[in-house]
Known about the structure:
With 220 residues, chain A is mostly helical. Chain A has helices at 21-27, 29-37, 45-68, 73-82, 85-98, 107-116, 119-132, 140-144, 147-170, 175-198, 204-219. Helices cover 37% and strands 19% of the residues of chain B.
Amino acid sequence: MPDAAVIDRQPTAGRQAVWSLDAWAAISPAAAFRDIATRPSSHRTWLALRRPLFTAMVLACGVSVLSAGVVTPRIALSAFVYWAYVPLTEMLTVAAVTWRMKTRPPMATVIDRFFIGHAPSTLLMLALAGTLTSLPFDTWWAMLTGPLLWAFALVLLWSAYVDFCFFRDALQIRPARAVVALFAQRLLTWTTVFVVFGVVAPSVRVLAWELTDAVREVMK
Amino acid sequence: MIRIRTFAAGSVLLASLVAGAIADVPRPSTARYVSSPGGERSAAPGYHVLAADFHVHSFPFSWSTLSPFETVIDARHHGLDVVALTPHNHLWVAQVGEWFSRMVDGPLVIVGEEITHKGYHLIGVGLRETVSNELPASEAIVQIHRQGGVAIAAHPYRAFWPGFDAAALAALDGTEVIRPDSLRNEAGRTELQTFLARTDAAVIGATDYHGLGPVGVARTYVFARERSVQGVLDAIRDKRTVVYDEQRPYGDPTMMQLLEQTGGMPREVPVSPLPGGLALFSRAAALGMLAAVLLFNRMT
């Protein structure tokens, strides 16, 4: 990953020199985002794109490995394009939620810092691809609806806490407002991602039923 | 220093891509033409034996990871001659796949739909219009037949049995008896076979593909009079299908005999992701390097 700007040369006070900010925020989100909030910000476009592009790359490689068992250009290159809808949706929703916040840094910085909190879900995706492809295909469904479902749930909860810390500590808003921002961002993102990935939903009722049916099928 | 690390990470990812491309060897088509029973003396024309997967989903709107373009390419890559794209409760992704396959001279793509009702899931294959998922199974089957399509019971495990009343059971054209999740699941396999015994339907092997693992792990060998959508649909209606699991074939005894007389079909079921050093390197290098970039990058 190339460095984005002069701000990359800033001292990394308060964290170990070896680990990335992403790793630090995954383990100790409150301290990491408090530290991040003190750092210089930037308007540079690349800053807003670099971590979302990395997320799209992880998704593309994961999709290719889960489908073909290898990272192959026939899947990974095009999957990179259309699976970019996930980080794109997140960029748009975090922009929508923070747009009217008076104290926020430039949007490029907000987006980059929001994606710093993606390490838990990114590591889950990589672990999922690595674990499943070391097992026979016919055990995948049992894994996905068993141990990996619990891993999903844990990561989902921890990611919510990490993003709560992002809103509270990196954007320095009150905890109650951070909870509202987190809820709004999650609602907008997950609704869009689920609809595009899973269901044709002409109404909220159909969407709710489709999601219930999907959960029912997983739990069966 | 940062540039060196970036170059090293990029090189490893590129190497994993190259290794993956080399390891990703296509599986050839097993399509063949066999004479009708009676051999040369028979006046009836023979059959095109085509490998088909009748339950395949694509991105978007169907909980699948691959777009219809990759799905079609993937189907060809895994030696499928026929693939029914069956999005949940709509057709347009299947129509895109059908158009694309014609463009790239891919496998025969049949437009279909998986009708997901609370009580049953039903595959409609050979459709022009969406069939509502609020109809009882028997009425949905009537709607499918009205369009000239065939109706296949999707994963008819015990929980879905109440959704198929006597009229629906009598009207079904096919039912899934081999699926990836039943291959080594004795109880599941028994449930699928019990359901089959209650119908007069063709045996169907289908992957219920959602982008995980290879498409066509479970497949149906169809004995079509002609290599066309109509030929395939007619073969299902006439129950000219054979499926294999790891133990034995199922289906029309005449067709099974015909197939065995001409050398049978490959019975191996690829139960593990691509084996071999290159494939392992491609997976480990890519996933490991992405994790390393995430954990040790210098972005602030």
